[in-house]
Amino acid sequence: MFQPKIPTMPQPSGLVTPPVVVQPTTITPGTPAPAPAAPAPARPVVQLTPGTAVALVGAGTAVVLVVSTVLVSLLLAVAVTSASVAVCAVVLRSLIASDAKRR
């Protein structure tokens, strides 16, 4: 009852066809496409005027100020959290010590 039953390999029932041999073909070259007369510029040239330079410096300064504000606020949040955990640890330690003295 608990012995495994191994299936037997059935014999092929259909017709077996031999593999098809592919004959190589020759490639005839076509006429080549004419080369372009002059290459087009990849992208237009951007000219920096004093006004755009000032705008770029202002935008860069704003990005630096925003990123530094976010990083300082994250650091402050970590510092406040660690200070509050330290205060909680001191209070719990004193409660456990005073409870042990009463017994």
Element order: H for helix, E for strand: H
Number of helices: 1
Cα distance, first to last residue? 68 Å
Low-confidence stretches: none
The main sheet comes to: none
Shape by Cα distribution: flat
Quote the beta fraction. under 5%
The helix/strand class is mainly alpha
Proportion of residues in helical segments: 40-55%
Number of extended strands: 0
Radius of gyration: 41 Å
Mean pLDDT reading? 84
Brief overview:
The chain is an all-alpha fold and 103 residues long. The protein has 1 helix and no strands. Helices cover 51% and strands 0% of the residues.
How would you describe the overall organization of this protein?
This protein is mainly α. It is built from one helix and no strands. It has one helix at 50-102. It is flat. The mean pLDDT is 84.
Notable characteristics:
mainly alpha; 0% strand; 51% helix; 103 residues
SSE layout:
Elements: H1 50-102
